[in-house]
Amino acid sequence: MDHLTPLFARLFSLDSVYGLTGLVLLVFGGLSWRERRLGNGAFWIILGLIFLFGGVLPHWVTGLLVVAMVVLDGTGRVGRRGEPSAATATPRPTPAGARIFWPVLAIPLFTILVALLFRWLGMDGNRGALVGLGFGGVVAMLIAKLVTGGDLRTMMNEGRRLNESMGAVSILPQLLASLGVVFTAAQVGDLLAAGVRHLVSADQLFLLVLANCLGMALFTMVMGNSFAAFPVLASGVLVPLLIRPYGVDPALAAIITLTAGSSGTLLTPMAANFNIVPAALLNLRDQYGVIRYQLPYALALWSFHVLWLWWSIRSGRP
Fold it and tell me: What is the pTM of this model?
């Protein structure tokens, strides 16, 4: 068993997932290029090359490729809601009843199985979950082919069409994750803490809690993800201004702060997967309609978190 573990780790690795993703993106780009949608084709081909060779390319080359993608999208060369042309379009098979849900259910099931297998082999279960998610998509594609009776050409065309209906916002989570790393390396949290100390005295508990939750929500709106914003706020405000001086339970304060930031997720287009992509897929007239609907609920939830954290600290003070 021990001699099989290195081979398994090499085959089922994040590099393999990145490689498969890059190949699919190259196919999408090739289909768009064939239809003379040159901007779309170039965009997805460049992204596919980054997924395939990003681990071996010099950083400056990868950076230039990212800049090229930004230029393509910024100049309006990347269209959305693309439809296959008559040359590439194929009839869509009719799925048979509830079996259409099998591919969707296969992804989380395969993810869990691979994560458990990683742990059983003494490997990182968290990494196993990511690898399982990637290969779970491949399994789901095969099951979808069996259920619908479609072919690979149909699968790629429909996948490309769905991908282009979202447009460039589909890569926003990766860019925002990079932004979180940049903010942490730039010690933005320390600068934020210095600003809060300058405006609020250390004995004003409610104002400190308010600044903590407001900063968390705002940074989440900028980054599009409360998990990316949390390290910045926790290191700069939560820990030095609330947890240490007031002896707060770190777990309690952390989870309330994190979910307060999640209220900001409901209010920002940067959280594209939640707020922009659904509007694009459903062809809503107002691309910010989801955000407008969520606004009152987000403000109510955020206010509750402020009061909850303030009351928890105040009632538990020595």
Answer: 0.69
